[in-house]
What we know:
Layout: E1 4-9, H1 13-24, E2 29-32, E3 48-49, H2 60-64, H3 66-71, E4 77-79, H4 81-86, H5 88-96, H6 100-114, H7 117-127, E5 134-135, E6 139-143, H8 146-161, E7 167-169, H9 171-177, E8 187-191, E9 195-197, H10 200-213, E10 217-219, E11 223-228, E12 233-237, E13 240-249, E14 269-278, E15 289-291, E16 296-301, E17 304-313, H11 322-336, E18 344-352, E19 359-363, E20 366-373, H12 379-394
Parallel strand pairs: 1-2, 1-13, 2-10, 4-17, 6-15, 13-20
Antiparallel strand pairs: 3-9, 5-9, 6-8, 7-8, 11-12, 12-13, 14-17, 14-18, 15-16, 16-17, 19-20
Helix pairs in contact: 1-10, 1-12, 7-12
Protein name: D-amino acid dehydrogenase small subunit
GO molecular function: oxidoreductase activity
Organism: Leisingera aquaemixtae
Amino acid sequence: MADYDIAVAGAGAVGMSCALWAQMRGHRVLLADPNPPGSGASYGNACTLATYACLPVNDPSVLTGLPGLMFSKDSPLSLSYAHALRNPRWMLSFLANCRAAPSRRIAGHLADLLAHADAGINPLIEAAGAQDLVVARGQLSVWSTASAAQAATADLEQRRALGVPWREVGAEEALEMEPGLRLPVKRAVHFHAARHLRDPQELITRMHRAFTELGGTTLRASVEAIRTSDNGVELLADGQSLTAGRAVIASGAFSKRIKGAGTDKLPLGTERGYHLMYGGEAHRVTRPVGWGEAGFYAVPHAQGLRLTGTVEIASLDAPANQRRLAYIARKGAEMLGPLPEPDSEWLGFRPTLPDSLPVIGPSPQSDRLLYAFGHQHIGLTLSGITGRLIADLAEGRQPNVDLSPFAADRAFA
Length: 413
C-alpha cells in the first residue's frame, strides 16, 4: 500500500489548490515544498482574480512593436539577449504564437478555462474561511494617450466576444472611482466581475491550515526525483523515499528540475515579474488599477500599496534587474503622484510555455503522473480550477473542461 494517495510537489497557489481539493475529497495527500506555502511566485502577484485576462502575452503587437518594446527604457517588456541566444527554439516558438491566428486561438482556450475560475477557487476560499480577504470592486484599466486608447479597441472587443464582461467608463467617472490617479485618462474600462485579495499569501496560509486540519501532510523538502510504475509513484525528497498512488507536479518555474518527471522535455520558460511595496500607501487606489501603456498594476494590499507587473524574459538564475524596479517606481509616480521610498522589492518567476497556455493533465510517460504548471500571469486566478481538474483526473473522472489544449504533448509551434 502506498504511503499516500496523492503527492503534490509545490505549495504555491496551484499546488496548494491541488492538495486542498484532493484532501477535501477524502484522499491521503502529501504536500512537498522546501519553502512556506505561497511564498514563491504566488506571494508577489497582483492580488487579482483576473477572470478577464484571456489575452495572452503572445499578441501581434509584440511583433509589430518589437524594436520599441526591446530597446525603449519605457517599455513594459525586457529581454535578456544572452538568454534568448541560449534558448532560440523557445523564443522562436513564442514569436510564432504572436501571429494573429495562434494568438486568437490561445485567447479562446484561456477564456474557456477562465470561465470556470471562480467555481474552482470559491470552494477553497470558503474551506479556508477566507471570505474576508476577497474584495469585489472589479478592476479598472486606464489609457493615458489617445493612440493607446484607440489601439485597445480590438483587444477589448475580442474579450467581449469571448464572454468577458466590461463597461466603458468616462474620464470623469474613472477619477471619481479612483481619485488618486494623476494620469490624463483618455479611456477607462471597468471589468466589474473581477475581484481582488487583500493578501494572497494569507489566503494560501489559510488554505494550508484547512488542508492540515483535514488530515493533510506537509513535507518541507524539495521533490528531487520521481519514478513511475504501473502501481504508483516513488518520490525522492530530502533523502527520503515516499510512495503515492499518483503524483502532481505543480512546482511552477522549477518543475523542470525534478528528475524523472519528464518535465525537462517541455519548453517551460520564465517570465520574471517584479513588485515594489509602499507601506501606509494602500489608500492611493481602492481596487487593482492597470495602466495600459505602462503594463503594470497599482493594487491595494493589506500591507500597503503594491506596484507590480511588467515582463522580463530571462533565466531563473539571473540577478534582479534594477532597471525593472526603477521603471516601476518611475511609472508609479507618474500614475499616482510622488511616492516615498518603497519598503521592499521583490522578484518572482512566472512559469510560462511559449504559447502562454498551462500544462494541465497526465504526463505522456504515465497517467500516474499529473502536470499542473505554466500558468504565466494568471496562476492565482486559475489555481482553484486547476486543482479541481487535477482531483478529477486523479479519481479517474471525466473533467467538465476540455483539457486537450493544455496537454503536455501538444504542438508548441
